[in-house]
Design brief:
Blueprint lengths: L18 H5 L3 H20 L4 H11 L2 H4 L13 H20 L5 H26 L8 H29 L2 H13 L22 H12 L2 H11 L7 H4 L11 H27 L4 H18 L7 H30 L6 H53 L22
Length: about 425
């Protein structure tokens, strides 16, 4: 698991924001996601829309997360990734504002929220593909950590503030103010060095992009890294289900809301920012699996104490600490895999990162099955047990017998097509 240099020469000294500041760009995504995931369901529920319909609309809107890599190649041709990032952010803002004005038309609302999430899931590959070309290898874990922390923090702040703006200001004024706040992180782009325009036009890009995609698809090291993210080593899906079972901990709705907002946001930011400090002492791949193991053991430890509101708070905050640290490491590993001078940097980021969304889809169902069969104990045991088994399998997959065939952290990017 020794590290080797990334593809391409080291970039010349750059002028611009440090890696941690670049990570703040994802605060744009987090802010609008808070509105789509939290505020809009709140507004629909207040209108008396049945929970099943709300859940169906939200579930449909998340589908682009698993398939965004199919559209990601457009980010690598024609225009600069900076231009694509700005366009996607503006599209996300406009579609979010439109969603807030379509609450009485549920079919059209579902379509608009779906399109908003297309912008949401393409924005991060656009900025990641851009920033990855500007940073040295040792700065990529820092960028990944702050991308995760900014997303978590802005999501939490947006979730808490958006409903207040809409209720205490004229509705359209509240919508406009939310959009302006969500787009504020784009001001960072004025201080970031421009990347060169892609050398290929849309018309001439098909052949080279296809060849580069074929190299990624045929690279077993990339597939093994995607397998690492597709299995629930460090998914910690309990963060999505614990708030619904607060009664098992004898926690009031107000307490669940408080911990679900402030507590998980602070825990998430702490976990994300702790990741780059740990990367200085441990290889990212090893650390990712270790976090999965420690997090699984933490989940099992929740079976022992008495079920009190304090235990609920500990569970929510702790699970978010581990989950955010894991996501920060996912970003770091994917950024390392891109290398420099990679003509399909955004496509590769989107493809590998899409694998991390897969367990978020199926693990809540497994956790729910555990709860249905064994209550809270079954829920915790299933989540922790599946995670620990996945960590064991991945440890064997990336162990020393593979040493002769594994490249640096199993994340080195394939040689880009010179064409």
């Amino acid at each position: 698991m020794d590290q080797t240099p990334s593809v391409g020469p080291e970039p010349p000294p750059r002028q611009g924001p440090p890696a941690w500041a670049l990570g703040l760009a994802t605060a744009c995504n987090g802010a609008f996601s808070g509105v789509l995931v939290i505020t809009i369901p709140q507004l629909l529920a207040a209108r008396g829309v049945p929970e099943l319909q709300i859940a169906s609309i939200s579930g449909l809107s998340f589908l682009p997360g698993a398939f965004n890599f199919l559209a990601a190649p457009i980010l690598d041709v024609g225009l600069s990734r900076r231009t694509y990032a700005i366009g996607l952010a503006l599209g996300l803002a406009a579609l979010t504002a439109l969603s807030l004005n379509l609450l009485s038309n549920l079919p059209l609302l579902a379509v608009v929220m779906f399109l908003a999430n297309v912008c949401y899931y393409l924005y991060t590959p656009a900025v990641a593909g851009w920033f990855a070309q500007l940073l040295a290898r040792n700065e990529e874990p820092i960028l990944g950590a702050w991308m995760s922390a900014a997303s978590v923090a802005s999501f939490g702040c947006s979730s808490a503030v958006a409903i207040l703006l809409l209720r205490h200001l004229p509705y359209e004024v509240g919508v406009a103010l939310m959009c302006l706040l969500g787009l504020a992180p784009l001001s960072l782009f004025f201080f970031v060095p421009h990347e060169p325009m892609p050398t290929l036009s849309l018309r001439n890009s098909f052949g080279p992009v296809t060849r580069n995609l074929a190299r990624i698809v045929g690279d077993r090291h990339i597939w093994r890294m995607m397998a690492l993210f597709a299995v629930p080593c460090a998914t910690f899906s309990l963060t999505n289900t614990l708030s619904g079972i607060g009664r098992d901990f004898h926690a009031s709705e107000a307490f669940v809301g408080l911990i679900g907002g402030v507590g998980t946001t602070l825990g998430g930011v702490f976990g994300a920012l702790a990741a780059p400090l740990l990367v200085k002492r441990f290889p990212p791949l090893t650390l990712y699996i270790a976090i999965g193991v420690l997090g699984g053991l933490f989940t099992l430890s929740l079976l022992v104490p008495a079920r009190t509101p304090f235990l609920f708070a500990l569970a929510m905050v702790g699970e978010n600490v581990f989950q955010s640290a894991a996501f920060a490491l996912i970003y770091a590993l994917v950024l390392i895999s891109i290398g420099r001078n990679n003509p399909i940097a955004s496509t590769q980021f989107a493809l590998i990162n899409a694998a991390s969304i897969i367990p978020i889809v199926y693990m809540p169902m497994l956790d729910g099955l555990g709860y249905d069969r064994g209550g809270l104990a079954g829920n915790l045991a299933v989540d922790a047990g599946v995670s620990l088994v996945a960590c064991l399998v991945m440890t064997l997959l990336f162990a020393k017998p593979w040493k002769d065939t594994v490249r640096a952290e199993d994340t080195t990017a394939p040689e880009p097509d010179a064409a």
